[in-house]
Design brief:
Helix content is 31%, strand content 18%. The chain has 401 residues and is α/β, with parallel strands linked by helices. The chain is globular, with a radius of gyration of 23 Å.
């Protein structure tokens, strides 16, 4: 009898162990990939954010994987780390330096992580510099739109250098479309909540989360926000946005945070169709005294709040019908009339802190409006650059130009 009991116990233990190993070696519930494009002047923020993520990883279970690709100015070659149980382990160190802003290397890195850490769903965090759809640098190496993840190419902790390269958002979209569909893209970088960007990325993810404005260099409070990136709730984005927003609202910037929003990517084609219809009403669009999130060095506003500009230019009936489509596409947003990066009154980054911009007409998405004055902007050609985006054709801006 004793031998029988021992046999049964051993069999049960072996079976349990085998099941445990199978569970751990099988696909995770979700792998979150953090793409840290920090070979630039954001390099100094890399390790503070990685430390936040590492501490936050102690809250994750074995079915929740957190993996980061890091290319900063302090290490010679890019590398990949996994963060789990409050520690950080190097998974891969590349044997050469390369541009993290190269869309093909971007695709290869994400594919490598997905292969090594397979999961039922994936999330992508874009960490680094961004300017939505706009060409960032007047000495850009080509006229292609380059808007995310500048890489200096020589391990310099600066934003602009002769070797600097940015990633084209349209190239990013093509790269991501060859990979498994993402549950979300969390853009922890500036100005990514543009109608143009969301429409371009609409086939790559369920949701796009971020800010239409400039964000602080320290970015998201990862230790607080990390568990929310694994939520299976339908409206998981609400807690992410609220935590991010409240973190800065409660900091030393009294009464100031940053505008944040989420886009349901499945609704972007409907929003484009609704926008195309209402664009027929005005023959020209008034842009004076309209809320905007970014202007270039020639003092030309380029990213108008979408809701504000439609409210100003449409009649009441058309505006109400159009806003129904916007509210479906942007199901949640937090309003800030003035954001913390506007505190220093930089020449390029200006908030819009007049009474014209209110929570009622805040849309959480920006939109470019082609106008004749942009034809005279030195170094840039915005009216032609915007033609490289699908949004331009989806709403038929060409009827005006």
């Amino acid at each position: 009898m004793k031998h029988l009991l021992l046999f049964l116990c051993t069999a049960i233990c072996l079976t349990a162990c085998r099941h445990s190993e199978e569970e751990e070696s099988g696909p995770a519930q979700r792998t979150v990939i953090v793409y840290v494009a920090a070979e630039n002047n954001l390099s100094s923020y890399t390790y503070s954010d990685l430390n936040e993520m590492t501490r936050g990883s102690a809250l994750l279970n074995k079915q929740q994987k957190l993996v980061a690709f890091i290319d900063d100015a302090e290490t010679a070659h890019p590398y990949i780390v996994e963060m789990k149980e409050g520690r950080r382990d190097t998974v891969l160190t590349y044997d050469e330096d390369f541009y993290s802003s190269d869309p093909e290397r971007f695709r290869e890195v994400i594919a490598t992580i997905e292969e090594r850490f397979p999961a039922e769903s994936y999330g992508l965090v874009l960490w680094g510099h961004a300017k939505g759809w706009i060409v960032e640098d007047s000495i850009a190496q080509s006229r292609a739109l380059k808007a995310y993840g500048v890489d200096t190419g020589s391990n310099l902790a600066v934003e602009h250098s002769f070797k600097s390269r940015w990633m084209n958002i349209t190239q990013m979209a093509r790269a991501l479309e060859t990979l498994p569909h993402l549950r979300f893209i969390f853009a922890d970088c500036c100005c990514m909540m543009c109608a143009e960007v969301a429409y371009e990325l609409r086939n790559t993810a369920d949701y796009l989360i971020g800010s239409p404005a400039e964000i602080p260099g320290s970015g998201a409070p990862y230790e607080k926000i990390l568990p929310m990136l694994y939520s299976t709730a339908d409206d998981f984005y609400r807690q992410i946005i609220d935590t991010y927003y409240d973190y800065y609202l409660d900091a030393q910037y009294t009464g100031c945070s940053l505008p944040l929003s989420v886009v349901d990517m499945s609704q972007m084609e409907e929003l484009a169709a609704a926008t195309r219809i209402v664009l027929r009403e005005p023959s020209d669009y008034v842009t004076d005294q309209i809320a905007y999130y970014y202007r270039n060095k020639s003092d030309l506003p380029l990213m108008f709040d979408m809701c504000s500009i439609m409210e100003r230019n449409l009649d009441d009936n058309n505006y109400r019908e159009w806003k129904t489509a916007l509210d479906k596409a942007v199901p949640y947003r937090r309003f800030s009339q003035k954001w913390i990066t506007d505190m220093d009154n930089f020449d390029v980054y200006k908030g819009f802190s007049t009474s014209v911009f209110t929570e009622d007409n805040y849309g959480g998405l920006s939109m470019f409006v082609p106008k004749p004055e942009y034809n005279f902007s030195p170094f840039f050609d915005f009216n032609n650059d915007i033609r490289k985006f699908g949004w331009y054709y989806a709403v038929d801006w060409g009827r005006f130009f």
